[in-house]
Design a protein that fits this description.
Blueprint (H helix, E strand, L loop, with lengths): L1 H31 L10 H6 L18 E4 L7 H5 L17 E5 L2 E11 L2 E9 L2 H8 L1
């Protein structure tokens, strides 16, 4: 719970900083006497403003992401699942040697192959999924 509380606090602080920056930007624009209208809708205004620098991603770089590897899967009725015992073999829907799916928080981001590094398993990425393919998988 401590990590979650800390993340909530960080999110709240970020929100307050963004709101303060929006208020300061609106006040500054009014003080400068500019004739262009200043948008008041907060973060969306900054994203639309082409003159502003790119978004600062430093705030999200420490957010934890769960990385999982999917070897394959199998559909079976509960009757068969309950009959499994130690040493039982379950046939998966992938062929041997086929790349594994690399998922970040349940979203496919890459494919790769298993490697062994000093008695530990790892994965070598062989393909990074395109942004279009990632968006399609979310639908």
């Amino acid at each position: 719970m401590d990590k979650q509380d800390e993340l909530r606090r960080q999110r709240q602080n970020l929100k307050e900083e963004m709101e303060a920056a929006d208020r300061a930007g609106i006040q500054h624009a009014g003080e400068a006497g500019r004739k262009r209208q200043v948008e008041v809708d907060g973060p969306a205004a900054r994203l639309r403003d082409r003159n502003s620098p790119g978004p600062d991603l430093s705030m999200v770089m420490d957010i934890p992401v769960r990385l999982t590897l999917e070897v394959g899967g199998s559909d079976m009725p509960i009757r068969d699942l309950l009959q499994l015992h130690q040493g039982a073999i379950v046939e998966l829907d992938r062929m041997a040697g086929e790349p594994l799916d690399v998922m970040a928080n349940g979203t496919l981001i890459a494919r790769g192959e298993v490697v062994v590094i000093e008695d530990k398993l790892g994965i070598r990425l062989t393909e990074v999924v395109s942004q279009a393919e990632r968006l399609q998988s979310l639908r």
